[in-house]
Amino acid sequence: MAEKTIFGKIIDREIPAKIVYEDDLCLAFEDIHPQAPTHLIVIPKKAIPSVDDVAEADEAIVGLLFVAMRKIAAELGLTDGYRVVTNCGRDAGQEVMHLHFHFLAGRRFTWPPG
Ligand code: 5GP
Q1: CATH class assigned to 6-105
Q2: Relative to the CA of 18, which ligand 1 atom is closest?
Q3: Proportion of the chain above pLDDT 90, given as a percent
Q4: Which H or E run includes 104?
Q5: For ligand 1, is residue 20 a contact (CB within 6 Å)?
Q6: How far, in Å, CA of 81 to CA of 88, rounded?
């Protein structure tokens, strides 16, 4: 079995995090190094390493992550928008090998990203 990641430890409450949303399949918590006034990490509780590892059987879980983000945005009153980002693999700079979406809000974002 793969070694538990830092996000797996947050799911299991082995290390602390500021959790802002939780349901049976998803968890969202504040990023420890925020890049915007709101910077959340949104993850499935299932240990899927990255987009590269998403199976057909995971389609409902991945869809539910977006439902969770829509609920979070409504809860936080983010009527001016937000950005959702996922890094997959080395070239994208993925550090934690547990599928996650960065949920960023509270400032204007540029495009293209760096
Ligand atoms: P990645 O580069 O893999 O897409 O993003 C990993 C993110 O996880 C980074 O934004 C980083 O700040 C965040 N992170 C890493 N370790 C921890 C931690 O222990 N707690 C929290 N809340 N965030 C973390």
Answers
A1: alpha beta
A2: 22
A3: 96
A4: strand 101-105
A5: no
A6: 23
| Tens-place pLDDT, residues 29-48 | 999 999 999 999 999 999 99
| Cα 74 to middle of ligand 1, angstroms | 24
Measured CA to CA, the distance from residue 21 to residue 74 in angstroms comes to 12
Task: Find the 55 Cα to ligand 1 centroid distance in Å.
Answer: 24
- The domain limits of the chain are 6-105
Please give the model's pTM, rounded to 2 decimal places.
0.97
Q: How remote is the CA of residue 17 from the centroid of ligand 1, in Å?
A: 11
Whether ligand 1 lies within 6 angstroms of the CB of 17 is answered as yes
Residue 105, pLDDT above cutoff 80: yes
